[in-house]
Amino acid sequence: MAGALRLLLIGCLLQGSLCQRLEAFMPQTLEVLSGSCVTIPCSFDIEDRYKPNLDNTCTAIWKKDGKEVFGTNDPPNQQARQRLNGEVTGDLTKKQCTTTLNNMTTDYSGEYFFRLQCPKYLKYSFSFNTVNIVVEAAPPSPTLTTSRLEVKEGSSVSLSCSAVAPCPSLPPTLTWTPRLGNSQETLKENQDKTKVMTSVLTFTASRLHDGQTISCTALYNQQAGSKNLSAAANSTISILSAPEILFSSGCIRTAAQINCSCETVGNPPPTVKWQLDGTPVNHSDKFTISYELLNDTRLRSFIAINQLQSKDSSILVCFSINSVGSASLLMPVSDYLMNWQEYRWLFIISPIIMSAMACLHMITIGICWYKVNQLSKRLREEEEDTYASLQLSAVSPEYDTLQVSKDCPPPSQMR
Question: Edge-to-edge, what's the strand order for the sheet holding 86-88?
Answer without folding.
Answer: 38-40, 99-101, 86-88
